[in-house]
Model the fold of this input.
Amino acid sequence: MSALEALADELAECRRCPRLVAWREQVAREKRAAFRDWDYWGRPIPGFGDPDARVLVLGLAPAAHGANRTGRIFTGDRSGDFLFAALHREGYANQPTSVSAGDGLALLDCFITAAVRCAPPANKPLPRERANCASWLELELELLPRLAVVVCLGAFAWEAALRTPALIGRDAPRPRPGFGHGAEWHDGDRVLLGCFHPSQQNTFTGKLTPEMIDAVLARARELSGDPA
Done:
């Protein structure tokens, strides 16, 4: 068992946040009608991808009927459909779809994780829940030594990255760099790169288009030192 696999097993047992534990398990019991035959994961979600990755994609939290159902980050929901299709176009994923943890998806030079690991009610984690989850991200980062670029999906992920000393190499900067699509913040050996979150609210309205996310991922590749 690799160190990342051992960490994933440990993370999956976390029960630090009573509100999130109650919600994720309620969703797993009640299910959505379309997924009534699924055995929901209903536990915290570890990161997923290439341990030699130079690019980290950081999201907000698992979707209640997406990763909370499938057990793999961004897998089984519309946001993930949009994200993995883009990762495949840019050469970071071996296939454009992600429907279950055993579907053969593999990532190359990319690792995906989230600031909060349990599905939150209304997709809105509380500040103390984000703080409770921070150590899991720190532990993952220790096992991803080649990371150079962090693609932050949304303002929540951007703020979480800036609050993670292991990610940016120091305490949170003052004043805070502002989030925006395509925003960049360089500090030492790491770069934060902003991208609108691939939520349906953004992708269905055209706030985030395939061309826009493709440009961000192409920039991530350039910043990571791979011009190909």
The radius of gyration is 16 Å. Strands lie at 48-49, 55-59, 110-114, 149-153, 184-187, 190-195. The first strand starts at residue 48 and ends at 49. Residues 202 and 208 are 5 Å apart (CA to CA).
